[in-house]
Amino acid sequence: MTNPLDRVPPHLVISDFLPAADHVALIDWTLANQARFEPSGLGRERALDTGFRNSLSLRGEGPRPWVAPLTATMMPLVPGWCAALGIAPFTLDQLEFDMVAYNDGAFYRRHVDTGVGGGRTPRPGSAAFRMITAVYYFHREPKRFQGGALRLHSLAHDISYGDVPPTQNSLAVFPAWARHEVMPVACPSRDFADSRFAINCWVRRTPPAAVA
Ligand SMILES: O=C(O)CCC(=O)C(=O)O
Ligand SMILES: [Fe+2]
Question: Residue 17 and residue 32: Cα distance in Å, rounded?
Fold first, then answer.
């Protein structure tokens, strides 16, 4: 397949991403913070459209003690990710995180992670400056959900796709412009603790100087 638009977007999968102790601590922390999860919503306004995105996200101003260690782990890896994904180097801004739980029937339809603003100049911190999406997968053992693959689609509609399973303690990395979706999850117990958990991490660039 020679047309770049027809190809599955470039992506990486890193197995056993966190040391076992950190991974277990993260699961424990997440289950202890169940009350802070709310319907995920879409975009800056977090508009609810449960026919498009149907999951729960960690919200509120409470502490997220995993942000600093994850940032420290990921930042040094970004240049290598750029090289592997064919992304030209850029000036790093902060990393942005979202913790998400997918329980029975949850999914996220096809989308890109770079907002497509309606002609307005994006504000610093906007999704428009997301370059790379990294998704960390974790769940309680034994695993009590099925499905939930990350499906990466070719830019050309319905030509090709590749599935990445949400494997325990793995990280999927892809360009934020790549179209992707989360396939439906089945979680018969409906217990929050049995959810497919993910931490989305977006690597943003600092806004480039305005083009005259
Ligand atoms: O959980 C995943 O595999 C991807 C989630 C996603 O696409 C998103 O939250 O933007
Ligand atoms: Fe996404």
Answer: 22
Residues with beta carbon < 5 A to ion ligand 2? Answer: 113
Which of 141, 142, 160, 138 is CA-nearest to residue 151? 160
Total domains in the fold of the chain: 1
What's the domain range around 135? 4-205
Is the minimum distance from the CB of 200 to ligand 1 under 6 angstroms?
yes
pTM of the model: 0.95
Asked, for residue 70, whether it belongs to a domain, the answer is yes
Output the domain CATH number for residue 116.
2.60.120.620
CA pseudo-torsion sign 202, 161, 45, 90? positive
Distance 148 CA to ligand 1 centre (A): 10
The predicted-structure confidence for 158-207, as pLDDT tens digits, reads as follows 999 999 999 999 999 999 999 999 999 999 999 999 999 999 999 999 98
